[in-house]
Give the backbone structure.
Amino acid sequence: MADTLLSVKDLVVEFPQRRGLLRALDQISFDIKRGEILGVVGESGAGKSLTGASIIGLLEPPGRVSGGTIELDGQRIDNLSTAEMRKIRGRKIGMVFQDPLTSLNPIFTIAEQLIETIQTHLKLSDKEARKQAIKLLDDVGIPAASQRIDDYPHQFSGGMRQRVVIALALAGEPELIIADEPTTALDVSVQAQIIDVLKNTCKEHGAAVMLVTHDMGVIAETCDRVAVMYAGRLAEIGPVREVIKHPKHPYTIGLMGSIPSLAHQVERLVQIPGSMPRLDAIPEGCAFNPRCNRVFDRCRTERPDLIAVEENLAACWLHAKEAGA
Amino acid sequence: MSQQPLLKVDNLTRRFDVSKPWLNRMIEREPKQILTAVNQVSFEVEKGKSFALVGESGSGKSTIAKMVVNLLNPSSGHIYFDGQELSQAKGAAFKSLRRRVQMIFQDPFASLNPRWRVGDIIAEPIYAFGLESDKLKVQKTVERLLSTVGLTGRDRYKFPHEFSGGQRQRIAIARALSANPEFLVCDEPTSALDVSVQAQILNLMQDLQDEFNLTYLFISHDMSVVKHMADTIGVLYLGGLVEVNDSQQLFNQPVHPYTRMLLDAIPDHEMTGRRRTPVTGEIPNPINPPSGCPFHPRCQYANDRCKQEVPRSKAVMNSTVACFAAEEGRF
């Protein structure tokens, strides 16, 4: 497919431990098309952030990619040297982190940080770079951008800072932006603003987004497709409406039911018994099998691959039976 | 509503002095800076019910919670628990009030002492309030409490780090229950947890409420959680209560413009196709709040009166609202 921007195949990330290897990501495969917004959800420890970090090459040692491939624009990027990866990071893949306070340098003005980033990636004179910086700040909705550009990060509020971080991520005109929980540190009313900014500016700049979050509301508002992760594996992936309205994997069904509803009153929330297994104690077969209410023999022995069910792909044996396999 | 409310909060105000040190103030000739975190808040909670406070960060939710459990003293105003004023109670009467009101904190990673075994953590209130001194009986109680919150009796030998976030919050709940309380103040009990774990904890809290006839003061910024848990909701903005109403009513017919804005801001995770109007502006600096109604700079209905006078809570359109626009029917 010509319009596939990022292609991740059978990605495995491992952390060597004193007692053997800890497999944190286990055969993750997905694609992101140009200009598409892919959401990645899951509980903490499911491997969402790790997936983002391995794509942009910011895995913390001793973590390492030990299997599979990551291709950007048809070019493999998982085996590049540090110097080569640096050229891609910022230029082709931008990053927005969770906490806007720690991702900006407190001792430089916004102008200095933005202009430095722009000039690292694009050949522009100081004057042009400044003009570009003001335009970026304008795009992300910072009022009076030409005056505020010389302020320091502490002079901005949390929501405004996150807008600056988005502007920074867009500075190198990347084709893909990885946003790791961009709204988690913000208040509800500001959250909605930032979601809109992220969605609209990325569309205008033609950048695809991989949005990592645990907030289903954010996913529903923003994404075209969504991937659900569980215990370092992909449980389900599909168009956002399908995954939310007609989830196919029992884990996704439980996850959806556990969110308190605004539309109708329920007496009790759906509850998935137990908790996600530790990475060193993932059960044999399907990782979800001890908590699943529709478990059968095959789930305990064989690990399911992603199986196409209607418009979704779900890693669940229930659907293999229906397909007659 | 002839029954006496279990908790009555009357005109509660808390100010914090956030000035620079005296010498700096003298040299820079700056006046004292006072932050009003909670401003004349009044509400009542009936026995066996859940009252929720919602608002953005900095709106004074947690400050109210801390005053209700007497971790902070009010600057002015009164808190009555079961008819007795909290700040006036002394000695044994105070200790008894203190036992009947317990708190569950937001972060279960910070609220449990990492050097204590779970059994000791849960037994602490039993010894502190002198409920039981026989070691074997205390041990039995601890084991019973652990199974009540969905853990096993053997877990009392473990340390907090051996548990996940949701399990730790269960331990915190067991500790609060060990004092036999009637009233639980829950300050964002699930906001540090994943949604699937949140569902487990919310279900547990509902079961406990039914079992022990508990009354909750529930604090959260998550509107969908609040709707699920609360009978009555109070909306806070910049330290003041802008609207109080029955949970159903508040969601069906929000009156105050701020409540409407908050409800509009909730992402539509069920994809019902609900239209979302974008929120404008941010919460102002509480050290230097706007004149008149604190919400007027962000309010589309604001007029000159809103900029000058401070609205008081009044019953308007089946709700209790502090808003001139609602009073005058300017919508």
Notes: DSSP finds twelve helices and twelve strands in chain B. The interface with chain A takes residues 56-57, 164-167, 194-200, 202-203, 206, 221-225, 227-228, 248, 251, 261-262, 264-272, 276, 278-279, 282-283 of chain B (CB under 8 Å).
